Amino acid sequence: MTGTVDAPGRPGVVLGVGGGIAAYKACEVLRRLTESGHSVRVVPTEGALRFVGAATFEALSGQPVQAGVFEDVPSVPHVRLGQTADLVVVAPATANLIAKAAHGLADDLLTNTLLTARCPVLLVPAMHTEMWEHPATRANVALLRSRGVVVAEPASGRLTGKDTGKGRLPEPAEIVDLARLLLARPDALPRDLEGRHVVVSAGGTREPLDPVRYLGNRSSGRQGHALARVAAQRGARVTLVAAHTADLVPPAGVDLVRVGSAEELRTAVHAAAGSADVLVMAAAVADFRPVSTVEHKIKKGDRDPEPVALTRNPDILAELVAARRPGQVVVGFAAETGDAETDVLGYGRAKLKRKGCDWLVVNAVGDGKAFEVEDNAGWLLSSGGAETPIPHGSKAQLASVVWDAIAPSAELRGTPWSG
Hints:
Elements: E1 12-17, H1 25-35, E2 39-44, H2 54-61, H3 77-84, E3 87-93, H4 95-102, H5 109-116, E4 121-125, H6 129-133, H7 135-146, E5 150-151, E6 155-158, E7 164-168, H8 172-184, E8 197-203, E9 207-208, E10 214-215, H9 222-233, E11 237-243, E12 254-259, H10 262-273, E13 278-281, E14 288-290, E15 310-312, H11 316-323, E16 329-336, H12 344-355, E17 359-364, E18 375-382, E19 387-394, H13 395-412
Helix pairs in contact: 1-2, 1-8, 3-5, 4-7, 9-13
Pathway: Cofactor biosynthesis; coenzyme A biosynthesis; CoA from (R)-pantothenate: step 2/5; Cofactor biosynthesis; coenzyme A biosynthesis; CoA from (R)-pantothenate: step 3/5
InterPro entries: CoaB-like_sf (IPR035929), CoaBC (IPR005252), DNA/pantothenate-metab_flavo_C (IPR007085), Flavin_trans-like (IPR036551), Flavoprotein (IPR003382)
Protein name: Coenzyme A biosynthesis bifunctional protein CoaBC
């Protein structure tokens, strides 16, 4: 990373802001980027400045803000910003701004910057559903993507007024996650999963003891969410079966199914598997559950508690492997701790052989690893014997490595994706 001339040596991000009501969310995107060590230069449109003033962007970024090409002319910002940036992010990208970018119009500083940028460009749309679905917008998006521009899938939800639908700006945390991914891996979001249905499970199941207590685990669901997010932005239709990830905002462009227990997750995954091209079991499924659940809260009392009888939960991954169709790809996860007998990778190899899935992601857990943290590392094992180390990085980076491997693997099976 070279960084902009304003802050050499720091990853340099140009944050473009379009003139839509979602411009206020750009302030949180800016805050998160600067707090994570990036030098950010905000380039709003004149319309954006009617929603958020320049002083706000300047205070948060520590850098001057301008919208026109006739300000600070001696430094030639309409060329310099695009030339020196490591990444250009536009959030929100309105229908008008997307149209200008697609057709090379350059009538302000932001559109000039888009023409001169030779780094990754991430456009994050925000507009009403009718505008997003209009043939002109769809054609402009397709044209930009064909040139290598990353046009993110918008979220669904509340728009302006009483309207709801697809076209909502994704949450700032998700935008920054995608930005971090592109800074680390500029080629991480190709549209190579279009027409494919992906099912991802995420989070930790909870097995109730009584109305208050449960048996569970420390999985936060972040890795499953990252896998779903990256797949959606690479063009897949994604069904995310999420167990207890209530503190996470569902990724944009994903169909969410919430579950609680292992049995509920099992039912939901099998229901979605019928049309799936890829099944990714990233959820941490409890191995055991209580034989019975008490309908009232168990009181402490004066006596020692009765032992809790447990029974084994179904092996959902093994069931999916046994029921898979020709061409369907099944991916498992193994959260392991080594011991005196063997190491993490050795246990992962044994699990891959035992389960019979096509791919297995192996993570070392414990002491701030994998669970309840933002980053991850591990190995990707294939049934063919290949072993790919995944270096430490964001969970989105790990997800991109996994999808890099999976996307062509199904084609090698000789069976077309169902779409």
